[in-house]
């Protein structure tokens, strides 16, 4: 008599719907805009106030289009959020390029200012890619909150062992922010693995920006000191 194959067990996917507060994302965006305001004008696109003012207007629209908690997908909100994130990302990469050019082609004597600018660029990189991961994974925060998750872009350790976390665990903004922090410091994935090409590309770009900031800017500034 043939033996029946054992039934496969495992956590259901997607997990049950779970609302997510939006205020941590707003705090992160406001922090990034504040960081950009602290950069010297020679490292910004146009006058120092123009880009933060535009980002502030987008942030205001994002706040008005988003409820206190994400419970289902908001198409307009997600487009505004991703547009704002892309804008800040481009501005930060420009600032890094401008700072690198300034270091390589000018006699620099103000090490303290360089260290401060490098820290601002690194912190902006860390926060903004946390937002990218939060918006990209499984189709976005709204789809995750509604329980309509797409295929996962990241494999979190909590997804692999039901003995540690319940089967209905789902990542929140703080989880993506932590992934961004570890990638920005280790220049590679640590406990959370990228699964899709787009997540690998995003993590690669972040690592490149981070290693250039630390390796070129900060080390040169320390030598000046």
Task: List its traits.
225 residues; mainly alpha; two-stranded antiparallel ribbon; 7 helices; 4 strands; 60% helix; globular; disordered N terminus
Descriptive notes:
The protein has 225 residues and is mainly alpha-helical. The protein is built from seven helices and four strands. α3 packs antiparallel against α4. The longest helix has 31 residues, at 75-105. Mean pLDDT is 80; it is low at 1-8.
The beta-strand count equals: 4
Beta fraction? under 5%
What ranges have pLDDT less than 50 throughout 5 or more consecutive residues?
Answer: 1-8
Distance between the termini: 80 Å
- What does the main sheet amount to? 2 strands, antiparallel
Give me the Rg, rounded: 20 Å
Q: What is the global morphology?
A: globular
Q: Into which percent range does the helicity of residues fall?
A: 55-70%
| Category from helices, strands and their pairing | mainly alpha
Query: What string, H for helix and E for strand, traces the elements in order?
Result: EHHEHHHEHEH
Strand order of the largest sheet: 1-2
Mean pLDDT: 80
Compact description:
The chain is mainly alpha-helical and 225 residues long. The protein has helices at 23-37, 50-65, 75-105, 111-136, 141-146, 173-186, 197-224; strands at 20-21, 69-70, 154-155, 193-194. It is built from 7 helices and 4 strands.
